[in-house]
Design brief:
This protein is of the alpha/beta class. It has helices at about 5-30, 65-75, 115-125, 145-155, 155-160, 170-175; strands spanning about 35-40, 55-60, 85, 100-105, 125-135, 185. Bound molecules: S-adenosylmethionine. S-adenosylmethionine binds near residues 44, 47, 48, 90 and 162.
Length: about 190
């Protein structure tokens, strides 16, 4: 995960603009009602941290990009709940089985290498009854838009956007991994 460093430098400013355009409310909705121990995968610069409710006892925030990790650590210091920021990769989580109450991913499943592997690992670390909370963009519902997404995905988009694929059928992957009910905020 040494690629996409330029995207990592630019992302915090992009994310601020997104938050001002309504993403901040979605982040709050994503995390509302969570309790106990949480793992956030691909935490970026820690933009979700301020939105965790006080019922969360600890967040382990995994982020592979060094620059984003430094920014996330600064956010963690001012977060309303204890947050530990760690280097790590969604494909190789070093977290014991059945050890966390929730796994959080936001704008990450579009860019991991193997969605199925990542989601199956998320299930592995969740306690029985644990929750996957996700905020992800998904494949367009209309054939025309889905074609545009495919065209972008096979040309410039992943290079511009940190490996993101617009047209992934992320909802199908989540269901394939066996998640039957989760709080979803997708667009
Ligand atoms: C678009 S940013 C989203 C950051 C943050 N989660 C948010 O909601 O704004 C995508 C993030 O996923 C991380 N990421 C990409 N591939 C990853 C992987 N295989 N494992 C863990 N994180 C990954 C990137 O480093 C980046 O921080």
């Amino acid at each position: 995960m040494t690629k996409h460093r330029l995207f990592g430098r630019l992302y915090p400013a992009m994310s601020r603009a997104l938050d001002q355009a309504g993403m901040a409310e979605r982040r709050t909705a994503l995390l509302t009602g969570l309790t106990g121990e949480v793992v956030e995968i691909g935490a970026g610069h820690g933009v979700n941290f301020a939105h965790y409710p006080p019922t969360v006892t600890r967040v382990l925030a995994v982020e592979p990009q060094p620059h984003l990790r430094v920014l996330a650590a600064a956010q963690a210091a001012g977060a309303p709940v204890p947050v530990e920021v760690a280097d790590g990769d969604a494909e190789h989580l070093t977290i014991p089985d059945r050890s966390v109450d929730a796994v959080v991913v936001s704008l990450v499943l579009c860019s991991v290498r193997g969605q199925d592997e990542v989601l199956s690992d998320a299930r592995r670390v969740l306690t029985p009854g644990g929750q996957l909370r996700f905020l992800e963009h998904v494949r367009a519902g209309t054939a025309g838009l889905a074609r545009v997404q495919r065209a972008l995905d096979t040309t410039i988009w992943p290079h511009l956007a940190g490996g993101c694929r617009l047209g992934r059928d992320t909802l199908a992957a989540i269901h394939r991994a066996g998640f039957t009910s989760s709080t979803s905020t997708s667009s």
